[in-house]
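tool_call predict_complex ligand=magnesium ion
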Amino acid sequence: MRKGLPEIVFAERKEYADTLRIAQAAVKRNGRVVVSRVKKKDLAKLVSALKKKGLSVEVGRNSTTIIVANTKSQKQQKEKALGRVGIMAAGTSDIGVAEEARLVAEAMGCDTITSYDIGIAGMHRVFPSLKEMLAKKVGAIVVVAGMEGALASVVASMVDVPVVGVPTSVGYGFGADGIAALASMLQSCTLGLAVVNIDNGVGAGAFAASVAKSATRQTR
Amino acid sequence: MRKGLPEIVFAERKEYADTLRIAQAAVKRNGRVVVSRVKKKDLAKLVSALKKKGLSVEVGRNSTTIIVANTKSQKQQKEKALGRVGIMAAGTSDIGVAEEARLVAEAMGCDTITSYDIGIAGMHRVFPSLKEMLAKKVGAIVVVAGMEGALASVVASMVDVPVVGVPTSVGYGFGADGIAALASMLQSCTLGLAVVNIDNGVGAGAFAASVAKSATRQTR
Amino acid sequence: MRKGLPEIVFAERKEYADTLRIAQAAVKRNGRVVVSRVKKKDLAKLVSALKKKGLSVEVGRNSTTIIVANTKSQKQQKEKALGRVGIMAAGTSDIGVAEEARLVAEAMGCDTITSYDIGIAGMHRVFPSLKEMLAKKVGAIVVVAGMEGALASVVASMVDVPVVGVPTSVGYGFGADGIAALASMLQSCTLGLAVVNIDNGVGAGAFAASVAKSATRQTR
Amino acid sequence: MRKGLPEIVFAERKEYADTLRIAQAAVKRNGRVVVSRVKKKDLAKLVSALKKKGLSVEVGRNSTTIIVANTKSQKQQKEKALGRVGIMAAGTSDIGVAEEARLVAEAMGCDTITSYDIGIAGMHRVFPSLKEMLAKKVGAIVVVAGMEGALASVVASMVDVPVVGVPTSVGYGFGADGIAALASMLQSCTLGLAVVNIDNGVGAGAFAASVAKSATRQTR
Amino acid sequence: MRKGLPEIVFAERKEYADTLRIAQAAVKRNGRVVVSRVKKKDLAKLVSALKKKGLSVEVGRNSTTIIVANTKSQKQQKEKALGRVGIMAAGTSDIGVAEEARLVAEAMGCDTITSYDIGIAGMHRVFPSLKEMLAKKVGAIVVVAGMEGALASVVASMVDVPVVGVPTSVGYGFGADGIAALASMLQSCTLGLAVVNIDNGVGAGAFAASVAKSATRQTR
Amino acid sequence: MRKGLPEIVFAERKEYADTLRIAQAAVKRNGRVVVSRVKKKDLAKLVSALKKKGLSVEVGRNSTTIIVANTKSQKQQKEKALGRVGIMAAGTSDIGVAEEARLVAEAMGCDTITSYDIGIAGMHRVFPSLKEMLAKKVGAIVVVAGMEGALASVVASMVDVPVVGVPTSVGYGFGADGIAALASMLQSCTLGLAVVNIDNGVGAGAFAASVAKSATRQTR
Amino acid sequence: MRKGLPEIVFAERKEYADTLRIAQAAVKRNGRVVVSRVKKKDLAKLVSALKKKGLSVEVGRNSTTIIVANTKSQKQQKEKALGRVGIMAAGTSDIGVAEEARLVAEAMGCDTITSYDIGIAGMHRVFPSLKEMLAKKVGAIVVVAGMEGALASVVASMVDVPVVGVPTSVGYGFGADGIAALASMLQSCTLGLAVVNIDNGVGAGAFAASVAKSATRQTR
Amino acid sequence: MRKGLPEIVFAERKEYADTLRIAQAAVKRNGRVVVSRVKKKDLAKLVSALKKKGLSVEVGRNSTTIIVANTKSQKQQKEKALGRVGIMAAGTSDIGVAEEARLVAEAMGCDTITSYDIGIAGMHRVFPSLKEMLAKKVGAIVVVAGMEGALASVVASMVDVPVVGVPTSVGYGFGADGIAALASMLQSCTLGLAVVNIDNGVGAGAFAASVAKSATRQTR
Ligand SMILES: Nc1ncnc2c1ncn2[C@@H]1O[C@H](COP(=O)(O)O)[C@@H](O)[C@H]1O
Ligand SMILES: Nc1ncnc2c1ncn2[C@@H]1O[C@H](COP(=O)(O)O)[C@@H](O)[C@H]1O
Ligand SMILES: Nc1ncnc2c1ncn2[C@@H]1O[C@H](COP(=O)(O)O)[C@@H](O)[C@H]1O
Ligand SMILES: Nc1ncnc2c1ncn2[C@@H]1O[C@H](COP(=O)(O)O)[C@@H](O)[C@H]1O
Ligand SMILES: [Mg+2]
Ligand SMILES: [Mg+2]
Ligand SMILES: [Mg+2]
Ligand SMILES: [Mg+2]
Ligand SMILES: [Mg+2]
Ligand SMILES: [Mg+2]
Ligand SMILES: [Mg+2]
Ligand SMILES: [Mg+2]
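tool_result ok
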């Protein structure tokens, strides 16, 4: 019954030294680790310290979440992808959360295909993205969206692949802080959509990867 | 500064006799009246009593809102339509509220075009409806939608005509009672959309008619 | 991009005659249909009317959701299961919602394994249930739980298989109506858990089945 | 079905360089652009950079929203106004949001008449403002109000012209952050009032301009 | 430090026999009693039973709150009014709550002047009512209002006399159940207004009477 | 129908220069003004600037609210007090809000008696304070309290004088920001208590003074 | 680590036959059982059926919660009380919830002392009740209170014994359904108070009994 | 009826000088004092100032709450422990709140056993901790937990000792700021659990100590 999940270090409330130490220990144990929500002021320092130790580090775009791996783990991953996950962000401000999902899915051994900054205004941009994802046989799609969060329903209504919605804390006024997006994803009458909490890119990436991997696992 | 608005009798908390008396007095004064939310048990009795007085009565579909008019008022309306309003309902359970909007818009002298039970599942059914409405030059479109209320944003993103969103108290769980639909309409990043309160078909119909009429009034 | 989803008729707000007619039409089109939330007073009548037409009808335990199928569709289903879904209900009052999930998953062609009335008090009863589900290689597990909803986190923390949490509107006082259960599932720090709205057994069953099926589909 | 709406750049979460680049590109495409919610620290720099490029820039009073246009676009606008919008702000702290509405309405080719800082205490000041607006035949009136937001109802009860209410996040205690104003505008029993989200001056200006323009368009 | 307050029996959750017994005992002790929120089904029976005992009973209009007095107490009250309270109800559905306030104020020995069903639509009807109240030197004014509750602010902004706002649970959609009215009364920027809880006519009447009486008491 | 209310300048969102200018103009018009919620950084500068103009300035303890008066106005006030108001603060952190009430009541020509930092722990300290207030015949008592806000109910249950409750935004966790205190004051079953919004010392002082003054006015 | 807790059957959602069967089985296993929230319509029937089986049954006052025991269990209990619990109800409507606490505490082998219908109006009645409870050395006190729930803080501030607060869903308007009482108990600055959920008399009785018993257990 | 509770100074809103003075005075009166939530910037200065006065000072880990005692008081405490309290923290971010509980319990004369950073992920770490606490006969257990707060239910379901749950304001998204943890603790169907407000370590420590002490007191 044990779990095939990556180690995730939630750095938001940790001191720099603790984060560094814990991250290194995790790489030693598992070959890789995701450090999420590094304090902005610590990011550059942390990345360079880890690189000096000979580790590979990738920083999520518009985010302070990083993935750290040793050489062996990196090599292994390139050889055998364990599934494929599509990740869509509705707007520019949703990219950081989408990147959290991408890094976690990759830490779990999945390939990812991303499509950022689509918006409801640009609905026509959804189709080619979805087509590519389906053509490449993604096992799950993560949709990250704030404001009214409509993109998740729209995508789920178009595909058979399971869709994981991530509301983001974007927007102001009534329904701000992701509440409107969460409510509308939960109220969606489209089948094939489940959600994680507001801004929880980590949870969405892990869930989607576990869906994509279980598909792959069974095919072997 | 006086107002070109119809008289509306809100019957939900009124006794049968009071509603009947007030409705008749209003018709005498203005030629027509909308009686909204008649108690279910009073509807048949009220309609037949009013018809016996020689008045025309129309009952909204799936609703207990009625429009009452005398012969002269009815004739006048047929002769000069003062604008045209499109009305869309997302699902079957939204029709009653949409009908409130229709009756009020017609009481204000507007033509209406309705398109009910479209849903997000049937997005393809939106296009022909919108095309017809635009071809017939509606001055405003009312969109009635519950659950996640996405239809209002979708319509507003496709047309230049002002769209009035009416969230409905359909749905269960988090965001039930219209809260998700209201929040997502307010959070919508689509320009050209304004809203009225949950289930307020009367307010939406009046607002849309006033938009459609001001357009027409200026053209004369 | 079309969808492998069953037809679901949401009967809660429909008249008896409409529900009957729509259900029969759907069976004619697709071989099977799920009718969810039939009005209590209509259930017996509806079931017997459908049976008289030679259709098989199964009623969910403690629920008014039914699955209706013709002979051909029934036979087909027995021959080729398209995945397997595990379904757990924390308490007796959660069984109705769990049954919604089961019927939808089966309508989508999945086998199901159910384990009802486990509770947090009976945590020891969770282990054998999970063991059986994993031994039989379920592709996803639906966990239905009200009150504080802890069972979903507990299960997700023990298995690699994706877990779909369904909070139920059980409980009273602060956090009643499923809010506590929804909040604690969303706040869960366990990876591998996604949720649908409160009491949305239909959504959970469809999502889980789509996960289980995509696994199976790829293996052929 | 294309839209006669201006380009709006929401700068709140954009880097200075991105905002500058995107704004210039938009002016090149459309002749004009509204940049809303420029970061306070970037405002002066952005304005002077745009002016150096030979563009006209107007900054909203008490706000960081700006309208940018090239010479040709500016000239065109002076020649043919496409409708007229009235804009009222209840208090000094509502002026910034009202200015957002004004700039967007003007970017859409409308004339505007503004009347700021009226308040409920100064109800007598409402009348002359409204008289002027009606005399000059505004096609719609935007009313921006915080605290209990009563001004929107009061204005709508006095005029036939459609009124767009904008609650603002002014006030403290219960109902703060615009919730009281939003609730009371939605609960208003006055016909002829629709609302946009709290502080959404951009949405109100665009909606009102689209009402005013559709009136004008039809008269030609 | 003792209190000059009437005895009030809150009957909503009491059995018929208990209410009757407690009411009679209270009249014996104090000469009079207010019984608030008698169960609808008990009202007629209770009134006739009390009258048979030779007591005077007055039932509030549109309400099930009653005032019961013996002959001596009734005579005393007519002789010496201890202050005067004005009571306004915005709409018909607010009358029941306003009557609670009237009965309690009278039980405390005050004269009352009532003005019901004014509404925001009938703002012009406010002036003559207020004039009469001020001419007759009321010591406090109770304003009962649901929906957006604007009447309380409006009245308070016109008079020097303390105004007690009572939001009522009238209205539907966002801000229903009196929340919008409560929020807008609390957010009101008009000085001279304090509030009691939603539907609490009893509390408002008692507070207003205590204001009116302390004025009178000091003049002797 | 004119109002005997002081001018209040709400400085929280005003620039220093504007506040100074508006305050001086108000003193010129009315002899005195209350400036509430001066920005902390502006307080010392503002006070010294006003004093240099020969005006008297009093700063509320633990607060940034001030009262400004010219010599004539100050003299007048000392000669004829127009009523007396008692003001209680439950804890140290409630004193600032209580001082707002005191300054406004005094600006309206009332004497005040204050009793600060009583707490529920120090219930025994309530009695002597109340005794003094009643002995000196206050016409109203303001009770300022955060956390569970119980002090307002307790005081109202002990006296006949009208009590104005002011919940404060003190406390953390569930019911923080004054919500628990507001709710418990509104739910209080003690007659003789009305409330203003959270932290609204200005409103409470004005309301209490208007009660105390109307008492006095009538005695002349 | 096993638990010394009684079996509790939550009957609210159970069929009559199930409740009867489960209750009997529980008595057979443990000698006694508490059946909480029996449906009103089932109560008389259930009690008489259980009595016919030779079991003792006690029904809580104003409640539908019962305790059922066989002769042996009843005898045992009389012989050795395992601690003593005090139970206070603020008002008549709180008695049903208080009785739930009493029955559960007694099912756990505790003596109980009850004091019902004290109210804040009758604060003087609190003292003699508390004195008796302390004299008889209760190990814990349960305080059941609705509306503003102040009684729990008041009692906790007077005694060293641990106090368990139970908010009840009594009251209307803002803070109704027990929310005000819960919030004010949680915000209480009095040490020595902990709470259970709204209306959870069962939880309070069990917690208080476990406190009282652990005290007693250690003394032997 | 007096209270055996320590003096607690809530320093969050106090000036440095006041805190120092009040703390010293309290030590003089009682031998010891807990100063909770010292401002971060004042902590080092305060500790060293108190130590210079010959007082012992202990600072809570990850917290700014301190316990201050004179030599005599310290000696006394070592000699006679008045009960024993177990304290568990679910995660690292909960330690500060747990330490508040520990310091208060020790200030009340109790021994404490702590077990920090257990988490739901590390459920297996709960057992040895609980075993030790039970072996050492703790009289009560405080469980501090944020996010979904499940640990409190889990612990309470395993032991007979009363458990005091403290939700913490950890977590983001829906149910953030401790609301999910509070709701799930209140909704818990496990008997033997009561709660204090979010982050209220002081209240939990005092309540648990009073439980543990009353046990001990009675044994003498
Ligand atoms: N119990 C349910 N909960 C949520 N959605 C449902 C449920 N039953 C049916 N639906 C969905 O609601 C829609 C059916 O609506 P209708 O056309 O009114 O029957 C379809 O999109 C179904 O998938
Ligand atoms: N202040 C504003 N409030 C609401 N929506 C805005 C605002 N400013 C711009 N928008 C909309 O937000 C989108 C721009 O997002 P972006 O592409 O990030 O600049 C467009 O749809 C605009 O119409
Ligand atoms: N309609 C009402 N709203 C609020 N409080 C009331 C109402 N009627 C009676 N009360 C108060 O409720 C208490 C009466 O409770 P009871 O002893 O149960 O009759 C007294 O304190 C009354 O002043
Ligand atoms: N962290 C805390 N949380 C809740 N109450 C506290 C806390 N610290 C101290 N108190 C209580 O707050 C009061 C102290 O307030 P003060 O007189 O302002 O120091 C006392 O009743 C303490 O028991
Ligand atoms: Mg899908
Ligand atoms: Mg549009
Ligand atoms: Mg898992
Ligand atoms: Mg109007
Ligand atoms: Mg006034
Ligand atoms: Mg009183
Ligand atoms: Mg105590
Ligand atoms: Mg336990």
